[in-house]
Amino acid sequence: MSKRKTDILYEKGTGLELFTSREAARFLDYHPVAFRNLVSKGKIHIHSRTGNYPLFLREELEKYQTTNKWAGKKANLKTKPDQPPAHTSSRGILAVVTATHKRKEIVIENLTGFKWEDVPAIRARVAAKYGKIPFRITLELPDDTGFTIVFHPSAKRADTP
Prior knowledge:
Blueprint: E1 8-10, E2 17-19, H1 21-28, H2 32-40, E3 48-50, E4 53-57, H3 58-67, H4 69-74, E5 93-101, E6 104-114, H5 119-130, E7 135-140, E8 146-151
Antiparallel strand pairs: 1-2, 2-4, 3-4, 5-6, 5-7, 7-8
Helix pairs in contact: 1-2
């Protein structure tokens, strides 16, 4: 069994899942030519491009499945006819920076629209206010999943020169 290469990407800054045309067609269970026809007719919108390749949001593809009878049937969706389209979230990544200081759990800051480029500034603000203490950045992604990054202050080990 050979492993196939997947063409799923994640948007920098928001973490939204993006598909190439080939992966979007597979996701919807459409032939690539049929998928291109949907795009050319404006039924599915291109979210962005990388080079000459169009990229499609997973949320938009799911929305198309819930609003299009044929696509929903292919995906075996059990939807009610009056069900509203799937919710598409435009919010970015939410971040909460916390630490334990003087034996108390404190919230240092809440950020909306978190970007990975913010990490050095967050580290600097924590160090300026509290010194070099361990802290956490808890992230909530637009798809309501999340994770936590734990930072420990760097300390030279005794066995290193």
